């Protein structure tokens, strides 16, 4: 019996392997089975080259679990190892047999191993590991290697009837979970479903006499020739759909798919599916499964595909994607960039083809595709350059247009006085119905732009098209959404507007998170008496902060700012003016007289000081000026208090303000209850007057 020490540079190699080499202990099974696949693939390669003349026979890899004994065995009938090879490949950590084989037989593909560390992942879950192996070479002696998780090992001759290798794991106490059949089944399904060599775990079962009983047929857990490894011309649409259901049993049917197949300048195969993208696109990510020679690696593919493509589902398989020693994370290099660019181009080509050759079907799927395409446009420059070919806009009537088509539709009626083509849009056609109807009445068209990325998408379009401007339909009054040269006349004078401002302010909500600014506009007398709008710039910045954060997060912290636009030509507003003058006239008269006197005094002093520089004005004159300013401020404050009191007692003012808030979905809770009660009272009084 040979005894010795494994060739490592530290006594603590096994604790390091167990804790730090692999990101997740469960991948030990993937590594051991991958080694078994390599051993089998090597044998098949040797046979094809005439260097192995024996019968290949049954090459099935077998996984056996002794649940009571907490023992797991992985067996193959591959090349096996001689005593010399065990010393070389097992006792010298990180000397990869696959690496050496690939150098010797450069033209052979399908070999998985690279770093020579996969075998040692067994010690993450096992307190003892045995390797019983027999080389394919004629007359080879079988050997048994054993190690208990220290650098000490034993290596001795043993009996083994057939070539190949058995890896026997005696599971450690802290890894008892891997001694459960259901756990091993789940790992095999996750990591080994598409390996190129049959893998058997137990026997198939059938239902008999009210229970499941084992048959004599091996339970093969993998598809050795998965769909993505086949030529697209051999695959039917039903097979693509069936494969998707196999990958994602609970998912909705995909919209369509792309079959990837390239062998130069890198090797890449795969099938990507376009799912129905939900508005919460974050939950859609991590659905692409990455494989290397049919070995599952990860479903976190951010390193190999642009971020927007992580919304897709499906499979990518490439031996040219560089991985770290545990195959758990991608390492960026030139191949990754080439592969990423290729996939992006293929996706863009597919979308362009679908639009060109089947526009009606493409339009039907647009609402489910829109978020994905917008994400690609705003995040990936090369995709954005192509996307103009197949990006659509939808209006509130359900009609679809390309970007160029829509420009032709609206440029005649929606070009403002500065030559900008204004694209009006709604993010909620139901809530903004009154604004949309007002726009339609002016002959304007309104788009539906309701995805979480619309603000970023709009910014992209405005940056690309300097003569375009996007404005949400509730961002201003319909007269000012698209500024024209003609202007309506205002019925109210500037003084009357100043008088009414505190009147309407008196019944606006007081909320630290919302600021309201009253302004008067010359509008059609038949339009609403009050409209509440939110400026396009600030609202868009706040929308961006919700999705993108970063430079926009500052705006997200700011309070909402609303414009309370009072229709200066509406009969009810004119009526409120008259009621206010009647209700507050006696209190306002002396205040107005005193204010006029103070303003005259201020003007006289300003005339006296107009030729003096600030530093030449005497302290006495400065004090007099400050006293006049303070007096004016005091009078204006008293005057505003009188007007606010009159406004707070005016039922019509309260009703008009609440109607405007209600139209914007901003009237809730106690305020809504008061409005309903007041409305009932107003209706009741109206009914009494009609009797």
Automatic annotation (TrEMBL):
GO terms for molecular function: ATP binding; ATP hydrolysis activity; ATP-dependent protein folding chaperone; unfolded protein binding. SUPFAM superfamilies: ATPase domain of HSP90 chaperone/DNA topoisomerase II/histidine kinase, Ribosomal protein S5 domain 2-like. The keyword Transmembrane does not apply. It holds the Pfam family HATPase_c_3. NCBIfam families: PRK05218.1 (NF003555). Belongs to the heat shock protein 90 family. This is Chaperone protein HtpG. The lineage of its organism: Bacteria, Pseudomonadati, Bacteroidota, Bacteroidia, Bacteroidales. The gene is htpG.
């Amino acid at each position: 019996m040979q005894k010795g020490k494994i060739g490592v540079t530290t006594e603590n190699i096994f604790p390091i392997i167990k804790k730090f080499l692999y990101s997740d202990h469960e991948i030990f099974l993937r590594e051991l089975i991958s080694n078994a696949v390599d051993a089998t693939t090597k044998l098949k390669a040797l046979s094809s080259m005439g260097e192995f003349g024996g019968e290949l026979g049954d090459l099935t890899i077998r996984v056996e679990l002794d649940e009571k004994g907490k023992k797991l065995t992985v067996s193959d009938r591959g090349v096996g190892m001689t005593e010399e090879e065990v010393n070389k490949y097992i006792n010298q950590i990180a000397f990869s047999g696959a690496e050496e084989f690939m150098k010797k037989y450069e033209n052979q593909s399908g070999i998985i191993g690279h770093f020579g560390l996969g075998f040692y992942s067994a010690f993450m879950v096992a307190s003892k590991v045995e390797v019983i192996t027999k080389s394919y070479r004629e007359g080879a002696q079988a050997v048994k290697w054993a190690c208990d998780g220290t650098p000490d090992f034993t290596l001795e001759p043993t009996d083994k009837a057939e070539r190949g290798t058995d890896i026997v794991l005696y599971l450690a106490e802290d890894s008892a979970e891997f001694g459960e059949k259901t756990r091993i089944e789940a790992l095999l399904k996750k990591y080994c479903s598409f390996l190129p060599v049959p893998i058997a775990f137990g026997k198939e079962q059938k239902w008999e006499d009210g229970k499941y009983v084992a048959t004599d047929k091996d339970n093969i857990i993998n598809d050795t020739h998965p769909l993505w490894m086949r030529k697209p011309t051999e695959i039917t649409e039903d097979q693509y759909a069936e494969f998707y259901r196999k990958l994602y049993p609970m998912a909705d049917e995909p919209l369509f798919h792309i079959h990837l197949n390239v062998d130069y300048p890198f090797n890449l195969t795969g099938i990507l599916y376009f799912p129905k993208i939900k508005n919460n696109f974050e939950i859609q990510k991590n659905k692409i499964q990455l494989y290397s020679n049919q070995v599952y690696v990860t479903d976190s593919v951010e390193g190999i595909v642009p971020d927007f493509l992580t919304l897709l589902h499906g499979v990518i398989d490439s031996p040219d994607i560089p991985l770290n020693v545990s195959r758990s994370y991608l390492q960026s290099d030139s191949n990754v960039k080439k592969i990423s660019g290729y996939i992006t181009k293929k996706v863009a080509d597919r979308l362009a083809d679908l639009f060109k050759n089947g526009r009606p079907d493409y339009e039907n799927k647009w609402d489910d595709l829109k978020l994905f395409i917008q994400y690609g446009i705003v995040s990936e420059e090369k995709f954005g350059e192509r996307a103009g070919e197949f990006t659509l806009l939808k209006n509130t009537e359900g009609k679809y247009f390309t970007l160029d088509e829509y420009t032709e539709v609206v440029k005649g009626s929606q070009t403002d006085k500065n030559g900008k083509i204004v694209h009006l849009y709604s993010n909620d056609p139901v809530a903004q119905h009154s604004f949309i109807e007002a726009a339609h009445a002016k002959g304007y068209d309104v788009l539906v732009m309701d995805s979480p990325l619309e603000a970023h998408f709009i910014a992209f379009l405005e940056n690309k098209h300097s003569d375009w401007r996007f404005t949400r339909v509730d961002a201003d009054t319909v007269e000012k959404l698209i500024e024209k040269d003609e202007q309506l006349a205002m019925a109210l004078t500037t003084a009357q507007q100043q008088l009414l401002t505190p009147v309407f302010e008196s019944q606006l909500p007081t909320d630290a998170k919302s600021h309201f600014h009253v302004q008067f506009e010359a509008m059609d007398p038949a339009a609403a008496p009050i409209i509440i709008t939110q400026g396009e710039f600030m609202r868009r910045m706040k929308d961006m902060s919700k999705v993108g954060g970063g430079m926009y997060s500052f705006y997200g912290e700011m309070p909402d700012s609303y414009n309370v636009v009072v229709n200066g030509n509406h009969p009810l507003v004119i009526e409120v003016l008259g009621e206010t003058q009647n209700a507050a006239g006696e209190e306002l008269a002396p205040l107005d007289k005193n204010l006029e006197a103070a303003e005259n005094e201020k003007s006289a002093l300003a005339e006296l000081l107009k030729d003096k520089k600030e530093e030449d004005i005497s302290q006495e004159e400065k004090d007099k000026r400050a006293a006049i300013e303070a007096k004016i401020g005091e009078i204006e404050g008293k005057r505003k208090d009188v007007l606010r009191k009159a406004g707070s007692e005016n039922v019509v003012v309260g009703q008009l303000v609440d109607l405007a808030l209600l139209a914007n979905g901003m009237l809730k809770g106690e305020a809504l209850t008061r409005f309903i009660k007041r409305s009932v009272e107003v209706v009741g009084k109206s009914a009494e007057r009609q009797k």
